[in-house]
Amino acid sequence: MVQEPQFGLLGPLLVRRDDMVVPVAAGKQRVLVAALLLNQGSAMTPEELAEMLWPSGPPPSSQVTVRNYVKRLRRALGDSGRTLLTTQADGYLLRVPAD
């Protein structure tokens, strides 16, 4: 049985699934996870995520890069069914268990 993922933001970013640490090593990938967690329950548009990832201004390729980061995060989380990190009409939503 696959367990719901666990996330930790206090201290170092921590992602666990099935009692194993899910590696999220890349800096911008970690920013993506943190941004989605901090906006729990609300979808974030690709533009909002790009602003978080590139505070001094997103590059022209930011929309494609954000999609690639989301794709890699889904793969790391084992979310092939897109039930955890969903695509909404207005952006991306990370569904986090209540506890």
Distinctive features:
99 residues, alpha+beta, three-stranded antiparallel sheet, two-stranded antiparallel sheet, 3 helices, 17% strand
In short:
The protein is α+β, with helices and mostly antiparallel strands and 99 residues long.
Write up this protein.
- This protein is α+β, with helices and mostly antiparallel strands and 99 residues long.
- Helix content is 36%, strand content 17%.
- It contains three helices and five strands, in the order βββαααββ.
- The chain has helices at 27-38, 46-53, 62-77, and strands at residues 6-8, 14-17, 20-21, 85-88, 91-94.
- The strands form two sheets. It has a three-stranded antiparallel β-sheet, with no helix packed on it.
- A hairpin with a 5-residue loop joins strand 1 (6-8) and strand 2 (14-17).
- The longest helix is centred in the last third of the chain and has 16 residues, at 62-77.
Contiguous low-pLDDT stretches (5 residues minimum) are none
Shape: globular
- Topology as a string of helices (H) and strands (E): EEEHHHEE
End-to-end Cα distance: 18 Å
Query: How are the strands ordered across the major sheet?
Result: 1-2-3
What is the mean predicted local confidence, pLDDT?
A: 86
The tally of beta strands, per DSSP, is: 5
Amount of helix: 25-40%
Q: How big is the Rg? A: 13 Å
What share of the residues does DSSP label as strand, in percent? Answer: 15-25%
Which structural class matches the secondary elements? alpha+beta
- The total count of helices amounts to 3
Biggest beta sheet attributes: 3 strands, antiparallel
